[in-house]
Structure to design on (181 residues):
């Protein structure tokens, strides 16, 4: 059974809207020990030391770190640690690690049977940007045609009526119908 152009474009729009997903099998789910809050608890176990909290300007913290590191002047006064040497929040290095988040986005793209729509819209965009934006907004946007026409107007940076939106949509659909055949 062959779907109509409008049905194919609705399916394509669904895939465009949901092109990022995180396909995880139950055995691939990270353990509770891998959760960011569990990893943060290794640095803040909840045990309070018997000292008054430090003000938030950082100077007292740097003084405390200077005393702990043994930075003392000739007359016995504690010297603060330089600002660049202070890590305000102790943490483990995570920049080089791959994300372990179960919600990490994976781009799955369109299925093979709808790739022609991507190519056709790319060609339409090169020929007539307005029509391509209208077709794209029609099948991936939400709301009434009037609200989608407003979205297109914002993208174009000018006025765009619902009547113009419908005319451009008809012409864009004719282009896609010709490309489908």
């Amino acid at each position: 059974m062959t779907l109509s152009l409008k049905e194919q474009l609705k399916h394509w729009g669904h895939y465009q809207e949901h092109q990022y997903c995180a396909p995880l099998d139950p055995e691939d789910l990270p353990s509770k020990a891998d959760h960011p809050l569990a990893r943060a608890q290794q640095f803040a176990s909840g045990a309070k030391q018997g000292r008054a909290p430090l003000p938030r300007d950082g100077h007292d913290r740097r003084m405390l770190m200077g005393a702990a590191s043994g930075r003392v002047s000739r007359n016995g006064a504690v010297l603060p640690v330089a600002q660049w040497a202070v890590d305000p929040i102790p943490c483990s290095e995570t920049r080089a690690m791959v994300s372990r988040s179960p919600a990490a986005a994976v781009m799955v793209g369109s299925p093979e049977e709808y790739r022609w729509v991507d190519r056709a819209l790319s060609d339409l965009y090169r020929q007539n940007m307005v029509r391509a934006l209208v077709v794209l907004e029609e099948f991936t946007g939400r709301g009434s045609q009037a609200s989608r026409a407003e979205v297109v107007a914002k993208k174009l940076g000018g006025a765009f009526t619902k009547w113009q939106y419908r005319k451009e949509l008809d012409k864009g659909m004719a282009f896609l119908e010709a490309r489908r055949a």
Remarks:
- The longest helix spans residues 162-180.
